[in-house]
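A.,

Following up on our hallway conversation. Structure tokens first:
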């Protein structure tokens, strides 16, 4: 591990931990026979970017890593939302009802409730699609407003963790929010 020479002991431990976390994340993705969700990939991307940015030994390296992570998180939301815009099932609420009606990614009770209230299912589904598609707006909003909007995304992910069992999304995306705030605070306006 010659590449660690020259770093302080604590920095070596941190770098080794980031490298190991990224490597294990990629190995998990490669070795698992089951499907993965965006949180798995996002965690690996965050660890990799922080590791590479930290190797630069200069503030510019870490700054570049934070910009990359922030834009990656924004891109993840926006791409997901724009994909859903093109899907009739997301626009009419039927996909949301179907997903929430499963045992693995939902609550059959909540799925039945939305099945019986199609207007509510449509409104919630369209709200999710709009919110995901438009999250990039935090990059141009005043910092305080952007922080409140990002806080609302934590509430969204906490609800998903509770209802759908998507616990890793809460952790993975929240890990990227400091990078988004770094971008917002770096704008200079």
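Then the amino acids I'd put at each of the 189 positions:
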């Amino acid at each position: 591990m010659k590449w660690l020479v020259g770093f302080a002991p604590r920095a070596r431990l941190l770098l080794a931990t980031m490298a190991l976390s990224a490597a294990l994340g990629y190995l998990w993705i490669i070795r698992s026979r089951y499907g993965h969700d965006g949180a798995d990939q996002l965690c690996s991307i965050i660890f990799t970017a922080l590791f590479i940015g930290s190797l630069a030994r200069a503030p510019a390296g870490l700054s570049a890593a934070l910009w990359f992570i922030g834009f990656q998180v924004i891109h993840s939301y926006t791409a997901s939302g724009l994909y859903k815009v093109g899907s009739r099932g997301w626009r009419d609420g039927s996909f949301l009802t179907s997903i929430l009606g499963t045992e693995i990614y939902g609550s059959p009770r909540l799925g039945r409730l939305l099945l019986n209230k199609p207007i509510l299912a449509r409104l919630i589904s369209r709200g999710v699609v709009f919110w995901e598609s438009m999250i990039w707006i935090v990059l141009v909003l005043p910092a305080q407003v952007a922080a409140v909007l990002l806080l609302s995304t934590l509430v969204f992910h906490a609800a998903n963790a509770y209802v759908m069992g998507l616990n890793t999304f809460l952790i993975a995306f929240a890990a990227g929010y400091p990078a988004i705030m770094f971008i917002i605070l770096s704008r200079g306006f």
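The two ends are 43 Å apart (CA to CA). Curious whether your intuition agrees with the design.

B.
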